[in-house]
Design goal:
By secondary structure, this protein is mostly beta strands. Helices cover 0% and strands 52% of the residues.
Length: 182
């Protein structure tokens, strides 16, 4: 079982037309939030067998991740391999930092499907990253939350949760425990 926070917060997407310039240095504006993830990782996945269905049965499987910085530090991407019991697949995470809003946007692209997932947005503060967005699951609108926690030089944890009631309640449906390799 993973440890760390699993709190809910409200979320509203800022309007790009109302951005105000921030007066911070590059070193403290958040662009380095994901530097801890650069490199190679093994991952122990734990995923609910059915999401938003009252399911309490989890599937566990292994995977790998290799992350590198892009866009001269304003982005990064990781190449993932997931050994699901029903068959392995590859996926890519793209992250882009907005220095004006001081937040990250994260997209997921899965080799099994042709479309990129809608982004989640947020930042890492106090050693915990919370990223929120909107999506559709089984034909109904949902909110999505990613949480990064327990971040050290050699380990970290990630959780995904869905909310079908506008964020009043959350179901954590995927957990990943990362361990650095090499």
């Amino acid at each position: 079982m993973l440890t760390g926070p699993d709190s809910a917060k409200g979320y509203e997407t800022p309007n790009a037309g109302t951005r105000a310039m921030q007066t911070t240095t590059e070193a403290d504006d958040g662009r380095n939030d994901f530097d801890f993830l650069v490199g190679r990782w093994t991952i122990r996945h734990r995923r609910l067998k059915a999401r938003l269905a009252g399911c309490a049965d989890w599937a566990e499987f292994d995977g790998t991740c290799v992350m590198r910085k892009t866009l001269r530090g304003l982005g990064n991407m990781d190449d993932n391999w997931l050994d699901l019991p029903e068959g392995p697949y590859a996926a890519v995470t793209f992250r882009r930092f907005d220095p004006v809003l001081r937040r990250w946007s994260i997209w997921w692209l899965d080799s099994r499907y042709p479309d990129i997932e809608p982004p989640v947005h947020g930042r890492i503060e106090g050693g915990v990253g919370e990223f929120l967005g909107e999506d559709v699951f089984d034909g109904r609108p949902i909110k999505v939350r990613f949480l990064w926690s327990a971040i050290t030089a050699t380990r970290c944890e990630w959780r995904q949760a869905f909310s079908a009631d506008g964020g009043a309640t959350w179901e954590t449906n995927w957990e990943m425990a990362f361990t650095r390799t090499g």
